[in-house]
Amino acid sequence: MSDFFKINYICLLFILFLSASPAFANTMQAAEMDTMIGQMIMVGFRGMEIGNDSPIAQDIESAHIGGVILFNKDCLLDFGPRNIESSEQLKRLTDSLQKYSKIPLLVAVDQEGGRVQRLKAEQGFNETPSAAELGKDGKLETAYKAGAEVGKTLRSSGFNLDFAPDLDVNVNPDNPVIGKLERSFSADSEVVSKLGTAFIQGLRSQGIFSCVKHFPGHGSSTGDSHLGLTDVSSTWTEKELLPFEYIVKNNRTDMVMTAHIFNRNLDPDYPATLSSKVISGILRKKLGYNGVVITDDMQMKAISDSYGFKESIYRAVEAGADILLFGNNIAYEKGIGRRVFKVLKSMVEQGRISPERIKQSYDRIMKLKSRIAQ
Known about the structure:
The structure is a single chain. The protein is an alpha/beta fold and 374 residues long. It contains 13 helices and 13 strands. The protein has helices spanning 3-19, 22-38, 55-63, 87-99, 131-137, 140-157, 189-205, 242-249, 276-286, 301-307, 309-319, 336-349, 355-369; strands at 41-44, 67-69, 106-109, 111-113, 116-117, 161-162, 209-210, 212-215, 230-231, 255-258, 261-262, 292-294, 324-326. The strands form four sheets. Strands 7-6-3-2-1-13 form a six-stranded parallel β-sheet. Strand 1, helix 3 (55-63) and strand 2 (67-69) form a beta-alpha-beta unit.
C-alpha cells in the first residue's frame, strides 16, 4: 500500500471512529440545524460594496442567512442610494454577496413596475409600466413582455427573485398602499389572475422567481400596515382569494408573501402573517399550496409594535411561514440576521419550536433553490 493510500485509509478510519461518537454526531446535527435555521432568514442591509467586516457578510457567513433584499433608497436616512447606484456597481455587489454564502442566496428586490421599482431609469435601468397601466391595456402579451423585461434586467444585475406581481384586487381605489400606488391590475379578480400569470411567465422566461403578494388580499384595506395594524374585517371578501387560488392551482408561482392585515372573520386573534388559520389552513390546506411562504417585512409597525421581536418570530414560524423577511430599512440594526438567527436557535433549543418544523421550511426553500438559474 502506497503512503498516499495509507494516509487516506488512516484518515477514513479516524472519521469513522469520530462519526460513531455521540458528541461528534451531536455536533454535526447542531451544524445542520444552524444551516437550516439560517436559510429561513432574509435581510436588508446598507452599502453598495461589501467586505469581510461588513455586517451583511458576517450575517451570511456566521448565521447562514438564506437571502437578501436590496433597496435603492434608505428610508430612515431619507436619501439614496442605499444598495443600487448603477448596473455595473449592482452586479459587483450581488456577485460579492454570493461569494460569502456556501448555499446560493435568494437575492430579491421589489420590481413591480410603475411607482414600485427599485431599479430606475435615472440609474440606467429600463422601467416598466405599473400593474394598473397593464390592467388598462388588458393584453396578456403586454403583461408577459413587461415581466420578461423586468426579468432580463434583474437577471443581468444578479437577482433571482422578484417580489412581484401584486395579486391584490383593487377593491378600494383609495387604498394608500395598493390602489393609490397603481399596484393592482384590476378590480376584476379574473383580470388580476390572468395578467398576473402572464407577468410571472415573463419573469420565468428569464430565470427569475416570482413572489405573489399580499396573501390573503390587501386590496380592500383603508390603512397602511407599514404604520400600524390594518383591519379589513368589514371590507375583505373571498373574491380577493381568487387570484391566489388561480395561480396556485395552475402552478404559476414560486413563492407567496403574506399580508400584515387583520381579519377577524379568518382569525379572531392574529393578522395573516402570524396566523396558522390563514397560512396553514387557507393557503396550504384549502388552496393546496406546498411551496415557500415568506412574510412581508417583519419590521412594519403592524407587526413590530403589536407583537414584539421574539413573539412575532415565533408566531410567524408556528403559523407556517418559511422565510422571515427583515428589510432593515423601516428600522435599521447592524447584524439583524444574526439576531434573528439567535432567537430562532434559542427557541429550538428550548423546545418551543421543533426541529421538524425547521426542517419542513428548509426542505421547501432548498427545493426552490435547486431551480436557481445558473
